[in-house]
Amino acid sequence: MTETVERHEFGAEVGRLLDLVVHSLYSDREIFLRELVANAADAVDRRRFEALTQAVPALPENAAVRIIPDKAARTLTIADPGIGMTKDELAANLGTIARSGTRAFSQSLAEAKPGDRPSLIGQFGVGFYSAFMVADRVEVTSRRSGSEEAWAWASEGQGSYTLAPAERAEDGTDIVLHIKADAEEFLEPLRLQTIIRKWADHITIPITIARDGKDEPANDGTALWRKPKSEISEESYTELYRHLGHVFDKPWATLHWRAEGALDFTALLFVPGMKPFQVVEGERESRVRLHVRRMFITDQAELLPPWLRFVQGVVDTEDLPLNVSREMLQATPVLARIRRAVTSRVISELKTRAKDAEDYAKFWENFGTTLKEGLWEDTEHRKDLAPLLRFRSSAVEGWTSLADYVTRMKEGQEAIYVLTGDASEALAKSPQLEGFRARGVEVLLLSDQIDAFWPERLERFEEKPIRSITQGAVDLSKIARQDGTPDEAADLSRLLPLLKDALKDQASDVRATDRLVDSAVVLAAPADGLDLHQQRLLQRAGRSFGAGMPVLEINPRHPLIRTLAARAETDAGVAEIAEMLLDLARVQDGDSPRDPAAFARRVADAIAAGMRPPPAA
């Protein structure tokens, strides 16, 4: 058999990452058992489900995760009757480590508080490798359910591993840890029992520990969600939350209820207390687990809409058959009703928690961007979500709601005004706000990418239209200015035609505006076109959107525009400055001039023309 042993190198940077796991988390070594038992339980759940829907043998009646310490051999075995792995799956699952990357893992590890470090194991997909904290060699023998072949994987965690044919009488996986000399405490059944009670008591499959030749039960195995709330401690809720999400924080909200009547189901859901680590945006589907009469069926039933995908937990129902198929899950009206009921309950909880502004701000900073996706895609719940929104504002510190904004609207103000862009700090300094500030009119500052799109779907709040201040002409004439009497406006009757003619290929219109104070020009989108920020986002994505040309608005009270208006009466050369004005507006709005080199030359020429030579000595 030695001739058929294959030696492989681990994926890139595994040596460095294993060193981080083994040494930086040394004081948290007991979590290796949590990770290995959780993996074993997941494998059993997966086999149980596939046995219902595919040609996979059913679980044996006495199925359990067995933990077998052997002091004489100094080995610890975790055996499960789960789905098992093929040769290729062993190589793929155990031969590549930390998809999120060593650099990201080490950075998060350095920044984490000591008590938070175990959560990084689950977050970065390195749970199996925590075994090397206590073992100097790990051997995995696995037989895929329904297959006659078994394969053995082995490694000392030094940068390579081996694969070889093996024997296993039944489907499932054995993990054998050769325990280090300084980790012999993990060969004591009592120590193992304590760890299981701490980390895995809620796992529904039985867990046993071999002691004096007998397998003794190690976990309660009761479905926590089936217990009365009065019998469940906060610690028990937290441990289940951590197990389901592979995290180590505490939930921000816990929802536990039983629905009876037309629908019969129990739900235990958690809103996380921290945003999960993601190098890139992951899947958008909800991963709430569906159980039927305590039996795990799938975590792909999409029990919540994508905009609530951060919610974790379990829904257990009596109203579906145990052999429910994936196709039936898509078609059954029972599940559709459960989805509606669960979604409504989560929204109701968020509305209740939103009454505490400081507490709700923690949730919003973690998941507000995701929640806003519902405004764009979910017609049924759009109106329910609107009161839950929070924004930065040009007028108040911290977060504010649409309802609070409406109470601060000025007399004569007809709309809720918003400004979208890449960062609220930059938006707060935008010249687009000048005329609004001069009148004390508040503008909401929207800086998430989704903010460029959802206002057109929501349209109104409390009968007030929601308007982007960069789209169309904003009429502020009904609202009195608060900054004193403005300077007299210049007569633009001659200047505007010159500018329009000069910019006919670059701007759809040139018009005067009363929404500027300190700036000479500003850009706007046509009333029937896309918001300026929408246009920029689509351009970055390489999308064609047929947006048409922008509008150039000029301030008739600005010294530059007054001077140009005076020169326009006699100097047709004013039109040559038109393109510079358009480029100035682009730069103010965060864009680049169409021709940066030409713009730089024009600015340099203008500066030189305006400078007088120093007096002679």
From TrEMBL:
Transmembrane segments: none annotated. Residues 537-617 are annotated as: C. Keywords: ATP-binding, Chaperone, Cytoplasm, Nucleotide-binding, Stress response. It is found in: Cytoplasm. InterPro entries: HATPase_C_sf (IPR036890), Heat_shock_protein_90_CS (IPR019805), HSP90_C (IPR037196), Hsp90_fam (IPR001404), Hsp90_N (IPR020575), Ribosomal_Su5_D2-typ_SF (IPR020568). Residues 1-326 are annotated as: A. Homodimer. HAMAP family: HSP90 (MF_00505). Molecular chaperone. Has ATPase activity. PANTHER family: HEAT SHOCK PROTEIN 90 FAMILY MEMBER. Belongs to the heat shock protein 90 family. This is Chaperone protein HtpG. The lineage of its organism: Bacteria, Pseudomonadati, Pseudomonadota, Alphaproteobacteria, Acetobacterales. The gene is htpG.
